[in-house]
């Protein structure tokens, strides 16, 4: 069953990859930060990376896997939560690092795992439902956006680490 799910996800990713192949080739010349900025739908993420002083890290050699929430994903956050993150660089940094994993994990690699350790030390949960990949409750809307120092998977929600 798991092999069938992975096969379906791999086929879906391959089809989507063909659609975005010209974008992926150009993006591979740029690092993760430049790729996200050039996409135009990550203005909030880019500003947050700057505020948390993570731009230099994500411009580094990596490789990194970034689960990147769009501006629309940030808009879903309650204003109170977003303002609290803006006021606390340490909390903002922890949340942003919860979106980044070490290594280059393509969508097929992600789909084969049940959890992935992030750079903030906590793990995100991975599940595949009806050929859709979810990271915690966020759906991967665009997988495998290549960058010179890793890969971006676009997600539709901001990931918030659980408190323990």
What does this structure look like?
The chain has one domain: FAS1 domain (Roll). The model is unreliable at 1-28 (pLDDT under 50). The protein has helices at 2-19, 21-27, 32-39, 43-51, 55-58, 71-75, 79-87, 89-97, 107-111; strands spanning 64-69, 100-102, 115-117, 123-129, 132-135, 138-147, 150-155. 45% of the residues lie in helices and 24% in strands. It is built from nine helices and seven strands; from the N terminus they run αααααβαααβαβββββ. Helix 7 (79-87) packs across helix 8 (89-97). It is of the alpha+beta class and 164 residues long. 34% of the residues are buried. A seven-stranded mixed sheet has the order 2-1-7-6-5-4-3, with helices on both faces.
Q: Which terms summarize this structure?
A:
single chain, 164 residues, alpha+beta, FAS1 domain, seven-stranded mixed β-sheet, 24% strand, disordered N terminus
Helix percent reads 40-55%
Biggest sheet record? 7 strands, mixed
Within CATH, the superfamily carries the name FAS1 domain
Number of strands: 7
Assess the beta-strand content as a share of residues: 15-25%
Low-pLDDT ranges: 1-28
CATH topology: FAS1 domain
**Strand-pairing-aware structural class:** alpha+beta
* Count of helix runs: 9
Through-space gap between termini: 33 Å
Mean pLDDT: 85
The CATH class assignment is Mainly Beta
Rg is 15 Å
Write the layout of secondary structure elements.
Elements: H1 2-19, H2 21-27, H3 32-39, H4 43-51, H5 55-58, E1 64-69, H6 71-75, H7 79-87, H8 89-97, E2 100-102, H9 107-111, E3 115-117, E4 123-129, E5 132-135, E6 138-147, E7 150-155
Parallel strand pairs: 1-7
Antiparallel strand pairs: 1-2, 3-4, 4-5, 5-6, 6-7
